Amino acid sequence: MADPYKTLGVARDATEADIKKAYRKLAKELHPDRNKDNPKASERFSTVTNAYDLLNDKDKRARFDRGEIDGDGNPASPFGFGGGGGGRPQPGGGFRSEGYETGAGGADMSDIFEGLFGGAQRGGGGGFSGGFGRRPQPKGENAAYRLQVPFVEAATLEPQRVTLADGKTLDLKLPAGVETGTQMKLAGKGEQGPGGAGDAILTIEVQPHKFFTRDGDDVRLDLPITLAEAVLGGSIKAPTVDKPVMLTIPKGTTSGKTLRLKGKGFHKKGGTRGDQLVTLMIDIPASDAALTAFVESWDGRDAGNPRGAMGV
Q1: Where does 143-206 sit in CATH, by number?
Q2: d(CA 133, CA 112)
Q3: Distance CA 170, CA 189 (A)
Q4: 253: which of 111, 221, 230, 304 fits an S-S bond (Cβ 3.0–4.6 Å)?
C-alpha cells in the first residue's frame, strides 16, 4: 500500500493547491495517451490518480493522517492505534469502535479473531459467533479518458456525450468552473474486477477558439470596427459565447478601447458568470484613394502627439 503523499511527491502539510498542482504534473507525464508503449506508465497513472482521490477528499485525508485507513482507503488494523471504549455509527450502516469498522462496508475481522482465539467463531461455549463482514474483494482498475470540449460549450456548460471503452454512451453534465485539467469521476465505469468495476476518470481539455480567448472566468474578444464606426459611433453586432448581441460604440472611439458585456463569460463555481471583455480594433482599409486624399489635406493631421506621454 503506497503512501499517497510520497506517490504525489508532496509534504504531509501540503495545501489543496499543492496537491492539485503535483497531480496535474504527474497526470500529464503519465497519461496513457502519451505512453501507449509503456504499460508501467498506465499503472503509475492509476496509482497517482488513486492517491489524488484520497488526498483530495478532506474526510479520507484526515482519516489517513490519523492512521484509520491505509493508502488504498482500506481500514487499518484495529490494533495499529490507541483505543478508548465506545463506538459510533458510520455512514452506510457500519459501526466503528476502537479504530476499526464492522458491518456493511466494514473490514473483515474474522481472520484477526481466528488467529487470536483459535478459530472460535461458531458460537456456543463462549466462542465468537459471526457478525463481521467478508473481506472486500478488490475492484477493477480505473479507466482514464481524455475529453476534448469545444471552447463555447465549456463556457456555456453544454452537456457532453461520452463514449466509453465498452461502447456505451453517457450524457455528461459539465461542472461550473470547468477548465483544462478538470477531472470528473464516473463511479463503476472502469475495468471489471472481483469486487466490481473501477471508476472512469475523465480529464477535460478545453479546445482553443478562433477568436475568443479565456482570462480566468472572463472571455476576451478583439472586435474589428470600421473607421466610420469609430468616428461616428453607433450600434454593431458582436459575437458572444451565448449568441450575438448589439454593442454600442461611442463616438470618437480609439483603437484598444475595451467594453464589458456582463455575464457573458464562463460559469463560476459560486453560481455567477464572468464577463466578456471586447477590445475594439479600428480596421483601416489598405488602399482607399479618397481616404488618403482626405488625410493628406486634413488640417488636424499634425495636431498633437499621442505618444508624448511615452517620452517620444
Answers
A1: 2.60.260.20
A2: 13
A3: 10
A4: 230
**DSSP per residue, 231-298:** HH-EEEEE--SS--EEEEEPTTPPTT-EEEETT-SPBPTTS-B--EEEEEEEE--S--HHHHHHHHH-
For residue 250, CA distances in Å to 245, 255, 260 come to 16, 12, 13
17/39 Cα distance (integer angstroms): 29
**Could you tell me the residue ranges of all domains in the chain?**
4-116, 143-206, 212-293
Domains 143-206 and 212-293 are alike in CATH topology? yes
Amino acid in the structure at residue 121? Q
- Three-state secondary structure readout of 18-59: HHHHHHHHHHHHHCHHHCCCCHHHHHHHHHHHHHHHHHHCHH
Give the pLDDT confidence score for residue 308 in this predicted structure: 80
Give me the mean pLDDT over the 206-234 stretch.
Answer: 96
Sign of CA dihedral 98, 104, 109, 110: positive
pTM metric for this prediction: 0.55
Fold entry, domain 4-116: Helix Hairpins (1.10.287)
Quote the pLDDT of residue 77: 60
Other beta carbons within 10 Å of 139: 17
As assigned by CATH, the class of the 212-293 domain is mainly beta
